[in-house]
Amino acid sequence: MVKDLYLEEWVSPHDWKSLEELEEHLTGRIPEHHLCVDCGVNTHPGAPTKKEVAEGTWEAWQAGETWTGVLHFGDDTEVYMVRESVWGKAGMEPYGGCLCIGCLERRLGRKLKLRDPR
């Protein structure tokens, strides 16, 4: 099953005076990249990085246009959120990168449970 998420809500125009300010705003909203920090698998193939979203948005604004990126969620996508306590037990900092599900479970020493997702 493939789902789409439009990025407009995260990158609507504000008072950013530079590309760097826009990138800072996106910190914690869009990852630097989507590679598992342990095994390197791409957890969200085809999704733009924070830098790509910022650059596309900035260029569109400079041209007087609106950038509307789309995130595609396909069968090979491993995008999920777990409780902060679970992420911490895996040795991860908030927004400290991505982990594929297999590497998250390996770090936890157990399979994910129904109560783990956020």
Provide an overview of this structure.
By secondary structure, this protein is mainly α. The protein has one domain (3-108). 30% of the residues lie in helices and 7% in strands. The chain contains four helices and two strands. It has a two-stranded antiparallel ribbon with strand order 1-2. Helix 1 (19-26) crosses helix 2. It is elongated, with a radius of gyration of 16 Å. The mean pLDDT is 85.
Describe, in short, the structure shown.
This protein is mainly alpha-helical and 118 residues long. The protein has one domain. It has helices spanning 19-26, 50-62, 84-89, 101-108, and strands spanning 3-6, 70-73.
